[in-house]
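RECORD TYPE: inverse folding
INPUT: C-alpha coordinates
STRUCTURE:
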Protein backbone atom coordinates (compact mmCIF):
# COMPACT_ATOMS: atom_id res chain seq x y z
CA UNK A 1 0.00 0.00 0.00
CA UNK A 2 2.93 2.31 0.74
CA UNK A 3 4.25 1.59 -2.78
CA UNK A 4 0.92 2.71 -4.25
CA UNK A 5 1.05 5.98 -2.29
CA UNK A 6 4.64 6.57 -3.45
CA UNK A 7 3.69 5.86 -7.06
CA UNK A 8 0.84 8.39 -6.85
CA UNK A 9 3.15 11.08 -5.51
CA UNK A 10 5.89 10.41 -8.09
CA UNK A 11 3.39 10.39 -10.96
CA UNK A 12 1.73 13.54 -9.63
CA UNK A 13 5.05 15.38 -9.45
CA UNK A 14 5.93 14.23 -12.97
CA UNK A 15 2.84 15.95 -14.35
CA UNK A 16 2.74 18.98 -12.08
CA UNK A 17 6.39 20.05 -11.74
CA UNK A 18 6.70 21.71 -15.19
CA UNK A 19 3.41 23.60 -14.75
CA UNK A 20 4.26 24.60 -11.18
CA UNK A 21 7.54 26.12 -12.37
CA UNK A 22 5.55 28.30 -14.78
CA UNK A 23 2.91 29.22 -12.21
CA UNK A 24 5.56 30.31 -9.70
CA UNK A 25 6.38 33.19 -12.04
CA UNK A 26 2.78 34.44 -12.01
CA UNK A 27 0.70 36.14 -9.29
CA UNK A 28 -1.73 33.18 -9.23
CA UNK A 29 -2.17 31.82 -5.70
CA UNK A 30 -2.86 28.21 -4.69
CA UNK A 31 -6.30 29.22 -3.39
CA UNK A 32 -7.10 30.83 -6.74
CA UNK A 33 -6.31 27.54 -8.47
CA UNK A 34 -8.59 25.76 -5.99
CA UNK A 35 -11.48 28.09 -6.83
CA UNK A 36 -10.89 27.79 -10.57
CA UNK A 37 -10.85 24.00 -10.36
CA UNK A 38 -14.09 24.02 -8.38
CA UNK A 39 -15.84 26.27 -10.89
CA UNK A 40 -14.71 24.04 -13.75
CA UNK A 41 -16.06 21.00 -11.86
CA UNK A 42 -19.42 22.76 -11.49
CA UNK A 43 -19.39 23.35 -15.23
CA UNK A 44 -18.82 19.64 -15.83
CA UNK A 45 -21.84 18.85 -13.67
CA UNK A 46 -23.98 21.15 -15.81
CA UNK A 47 -22.67 19.48 -18.96
CA UNK A 48 -23.54 16.03 -17.60
CA UNK A 49 -27.05 17.11 -16.59
CA UNK A 50 -27.64 18.51 -20.08
CA UNK A 51 -26.35 15.26 -21.63
CA UNK A 52 -23.14 16.65 -23.13
CA UNK A 53 -21.21 13.67 -21.77
CA UNK A 54 -18.19 13.71 -24.07
CA UNK A 55 -17.47 17.38 -23.33
CA UNK A 56 -18.08 16.72 -19.63
CA UNK A 57 -15.41 14.01 -19.67
CA UNK A 58 -12.77 16.45 -20.84
CA UNK A 59 -13.91 19.11 -18.37
CA UNK A 60 -13.79 16.64 -15.44
CA UNK A 61 -10.23 15.70 -16.41
CA UNK A 62 -9.28 19.37 -16.75
CA UNK A 63 -10.66 20.19 -13.30
CA UNK A 64 -8.62 17.31 -11.88
CA UNK A 65 -5.43 18.98 -13.07
CA UNK A 66 -6.20 22.02 -10.91
CA UNK A 67 -6.72 19.70 -7.94
CA UNK A 68 -3.14 18.51 -8.37
CA UNK A 69 -1.70 21.94 -9.05
CA UNK A 70 -3.05 23.91 -6.09
CA UNK A 71 -1.35 21.78 -3.46
CA UNK A 72 1.84 21.42 -5.52
CA UNK A 73 2.07 25.20 -6.00
CA UNK A 74 1.45 25.80 -2.28
CA UNK A 75 4.29 23.45 -1.34
CA UNK A 76 6.66 24.80 -3.98
CA UNK A 77 6.14 28.41 -2.87
CA UNK A 78 5.91 27.72 0.89
CA UNK A 79 2.33 28.99 0.96
CA UNK A 80 0.70 25.99 2.59
CA UNK A 81 -1.88 27.07 5.17
CA UNK A 82 -4.48 25.33 7.29
CA UNK A 83 -7.20 27.38 5.63
CA UNK A 84 -5.93 26.48 2.17
CA UNK A 85 -6.07 22.79 3.04
CA UNK A 86 -9.62 23.08 4.37
CA UNK A 87 -10.72 25.16 1.37
CA UNK A 88 -9.22 22.64 -1.04
CA UNK A 89 -10.92 19.71 0.66
CA UNK A 90 -14.26 21.52 0.91
CA UNK A 91 -14.37 22.63 -2.72
CA UNK A 92 -13.24 19.19 -3.89
CA UNK A 93 -16.22 17.64 -2.12
CA UNK A 94 -18.57 20.24 -3.57
CA UNK A 95 -17.18 19.70 -7.07
CA UNK A 96 -17.62 15.94 -6.82
CA UNK A 97 -21.13 16.32 -5.43
CA UNK A 98 -22.15 18.66 -8.27
CA UNK A 99 -20.94 16.17 -10.88
CA UNK A 100 -22.87 13.41 -9.09
CA UNK A 101 -26.01 15.56 -9.04
CA UNK A 102 -25.55 16.10 -12.77
CA UNK A 103 -25.32 12.34 -13.23
CA UNK A 104 -28.44 11.88 -11.11
CA UNK A 105 -30.35 14.31 -13.33
CA UNK A 106 -29.06 12.50 -16.41
CA UNK A 107 -30.19 9.07 -15.18
CA UNK A 108 -33.52 10.37 -13.94
CA UNK A 109 -34.14 11.66 -17.46
CA UNK A 110 -33.05 8.27 -18.79
CA UNK A 111 -35.33 6.49 -16.29
CA UNK A 112 -32.36 4.32 -15.29
CA UNK A 113 -32.80 2.97 -11.77
CA UNK A 114 -29.42 1.21 -11.92
CA UNK A 115 -27.70 4.43 -12.91
CA UNK A 116 -29.32 6.37 -10.07
CA UNK A 117 -28.36 3.71 -7.52
CA UNK A 118 -24.74 3.52 -8.71
CA UNK A 119 -24.35 7.30 -8.66
CA UNK A 120 -25.78 7.44 -5.13
CA UNK A 121 -23.53 4.67 -3.84
CA UNK A 122 -20.50 6.20 -5.50
CA UNK A 123 -21.24 9.66 -4.14
CA UNK A 124 -21.63 8.45 -0.56
CA UNK A 125 -18.61 6.14 -0.83
CA UNK A 126 -16.31 8.84 -2.19
CA UNK A 127 -17.43 11.27 0.51
CA UNK A 128 -16.72 8.63 3.16
CA UNK A 129 -13.20 8.10 1.81
CA UNK A 130 -12.43 11.78 2.32
CA UNK A 131 -14.34 12.04 5.61
CA UNK A 132 -12.48 9.16 7.27
CA UNK A 133 -9.13 10.66 6.29
CA UNK A 134 -10.15 14.07 7.64
CA UNK A 135 -11.39 12.63 10.94
CA UNK A 136 -8.26 10.53 11.27
CA UNK A 137 -6.01 13.52 10.71
CA UNK A 138 -8.10 15.41 13.29
CA UNK A 139 -6.94 12.93 15.93
CA UNK A 140 -3.36 12.90 14.70
CA UNK A 141 -3.43 9.82 12.45
CA UNK A 142 -2.14 9.90 8.87
CA UNK A 143 -4.56 7.95 6.69
CA UNK A 144 -3.82 8.43 3.00
CA UNK A 145 -3.98 4.74 2.13
CA UNK A 146 -6.47 3.15 -0.23
CA UNK A 147 -6.74 1.64 -3.68
CA UNK A 148 -9.16 4.26 -5.00
CA UNK A 149 -8.60 7.86 -4.00
CA UNK A 150 -9.61 11.10 -5.74
CA UNK A 151 -7.12 10.88 -8.67
CA UNK A 152 -8.40 7.42 -9.56
CA UNK A 153 -12.00 8.59 -9.29
CA UNK A 154 -11.32 11.48 -11.65
CA UNK A 155 -9.62 9.22 -14.22
CA UNK A 156 -12.32 6.54 -14.18
CA UNK A 157 -15.17 9.06 -14.35
CA UNK A 158 -13.50 10.99 -17.16
CA UNK A 159 -13.00 7.83 -19.18
CA UNK A 160 -16.57 6.71 -18.47
CA UNK A 161 -17.96 10.02 -19.75
CA UNK A 162 -15.68 10.15 -22.77
CA UNK A 163 -16.72 6.63 -23.78
CA UNK A 164 -20.34 6.93 -22.67
CA UNK A 165 -21.53 6.47 -26.25
CA UNK A 166 -20.42 2.85 -25.97
CA UNK A 167 -23.00 1.31 -23.66
CA UNK A 168 -22.63 0.35 -20.85
CA UNK A 169 -19.19 1.94 -20.32
CA UNK A 170 -20.44 4.78 -18.12
CA UNK A 171 -22.41 2.41 -15.90
CA UNK A 172 -19.33 0.20 -15.56
CA UNK A 173 -17.25 3.25 -14.59
CA UNK A 174 -19.83 4.25 -11.99
CA UNK A 175 -20.02 0.69 -10.69
CA UNK A 176 -16.24 0.57 -10.28
CA UNK A 177 -16.32 3.93 -8.53
CA UNK A 178 -19.04 2.79 -6.13
CA UNK A 179 -17.43 -0.55 -5.24
CA UNK A 180 -13.83 0.67 -4.98
CA UNK A 181 -14.78 3.81 -3.04
CA UNK A 182 -16.45 1.68 -0.37
CA UNK A 183 -13.46 -0.71 -0.37
CA UNK A 184 -11.15 2.27 0.17
CA UNK A 185 -13.36 3.63 2.95
CA UNK A 186 -13.14 0.22 4.61
CA UNK A 187 -9.35 0.19 4.23
CA UNK A 188 -9.06 3.58 5.87
CA UNK A 189 -11.42 2.72 8.69
CA UNK A 190 -9.44 -0.46 9.35
CA UNK A 191 -6.21 1.57 9.29
CA UNK A 192 -7.59 3.96 11.91
CA UNK A 193 -8.79 1.05 14.03
CA UNK A 194 -5.35 -0.56 13.92
CA UNK A 195 -3.51 2.64 14.82
CA UNK A 196 -5.88 3.61 17.63
CA UNK A 197 -5.72 0.06 18.97
CA UNK A 198 -1.94 0.26 19.03
CA UNK A 199 -2.06 3.61 20.87
CA UNK A 200 -4.52 2.23 23.40
CA UNK A 201 -2.37 -0.81 24.06
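DESIGNED SEQUENCE:
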Amino acid sequence: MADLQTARKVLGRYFTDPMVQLLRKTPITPNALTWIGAMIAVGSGVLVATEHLFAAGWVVAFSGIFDLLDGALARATNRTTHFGAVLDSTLDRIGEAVVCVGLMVFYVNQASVIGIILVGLGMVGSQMVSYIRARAEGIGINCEIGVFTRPERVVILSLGLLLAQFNPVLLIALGLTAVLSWVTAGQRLFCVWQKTKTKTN
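NOTES: The domain at 2-194 is CATH 1.20.120.1760 (Four Helix Bundle (Hemerythrin (Met), subunit A)).
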